[in-house]
Amino acid sequence: MNNKPIRFLYSVPYFIWILLFVIAPIALVVYYSFFDISGDFTFVNYKNFFSPVYLKLAVSSFWYAFLITLFSLLVAYPTAYFLTKTKNKQLWLLLIIIPSWINLLLKTYAFIGIFGLYGPINALFGLFGISEKQILFTDFSFIFVSVYIFIPFMILPIFNSLDKLNPVLLDASRDLGANSWTTFRRVIWPMTMNGVKSGVQVVFIPALSLFMITRLIAGNKVITLGTAIEQHFLVTQNWGMGSTLAVFLTLAMFLIMAITRNEKGAVHNGKIK
Fold first, then answer.
1. How far apart are CA 254 and CA 169, in angstroms?
2. Kind of pairing, strands 271-272 and 267-268?
3. What pLDDT is recorded for position 103?
4. Backbone angles phi, psi at 137, to 5 degrees
5. C-alpha–C-alpha distance, residues 134 and 103, integer Å
6. Fewest CB within 10 A of the end CB: N or C in the chain?
7. How far, in Å, CA of 85 to CA of 92, rounded?
């Protein structure tokens, strides 16, 4: 029996979804990027993007996204590794994931209270005779809160990769005389690279387009492409320039996905491909 018509029928809702909610919005953004604030067709938006102002903005966005991803990875990898060694690892993993269910705005406002001049952090400083510090509206507060928000999404794919790691390969590495660092560098890290790449994708890509955290935590002292897009659409009403920034942001996201795409068959019969 030929199942192709049935498979095609089942795939129709998927293609409709992709058309309406992926292709159509991107096409609409590209369309608006060719119009200026007066509604006239122009290429000036793309010319303006390569001006020093917007190029500096793009570099700043990538820099902050890189820092957020780096610190998330540095915390998430050892955390995921130790989670795989615990007795109730699924329970501990659930406790880490639960905060991601809380509304992002609520978590952001919570950190405004924590980092505020009269918050618990400055109260703790006072106990040690340290004067009040302005923690809010700094690069530190922005990166710290961003890492806190994104870190569960980095831990989960890495945890899955580590949990599926064949312990026989680790035993073989030790039997061959490799120390812990060599085992990690030559066995554990390469075999969990797909999990790391997935984690980088789900952190780096949304970190590029942050705008609410930059406004509430960084006080707009940190300006990203996401902030500029919001300003152009909601404040200046220059939808053309906002759409142009969104086009380049989308291209950057596709580029990151291409660079960090997972390789199939990375491990075959215990050999790293």
1. 35
2. antiparallel
3. 87
4. 65, 35
5. 25
6. N
7. 11
Ranges of the chain whose pLDDT falls below 70:
1-2, 263-273
Write down the residue that tokens 């390469």 correspond to. 190
What is the C-alpha to C-alpha distance for residues 59 and 48, in angstroms, rounded to an integer?
15
Task: Determine the Cα–Cα distance for residues 13 and 247; give it in Å rounded to an integer.
Answer: 26
β partners of residue 267: 272
Distance CA 62, CA 225 (A): 9
Beta bridge partners of 41: 35
Q: Where in the chain is the domain with CATH 1.10.3720.10?
A: 46-272
pLDDT per residue as tens digits for the range 252-263 = 999 999 988 876
Q: How many helices (H) and strands (E) does the chain have?
A: 15, 2
Instruction: Tell me how far apart the alpha carbons of residues 41 and 55 are, in angstroms, rounded to a whole number.
Output: 23
- Closest among 191, 205, 213 to 154, alpha carbons compared: 205
Q: Give the CATH superfamily of 46-272.
A: MetI-like (1.10.3720.10)
Separation CA 143–CA 23 (nearest Å) = 32
**3-class state of residue 96 by DSSP:** helix
Return the SS3 of 51. Answer: coil
Q: Can you state the angle between helices 139-163 and 193-208, rounded to 10 degrees?
A: 150
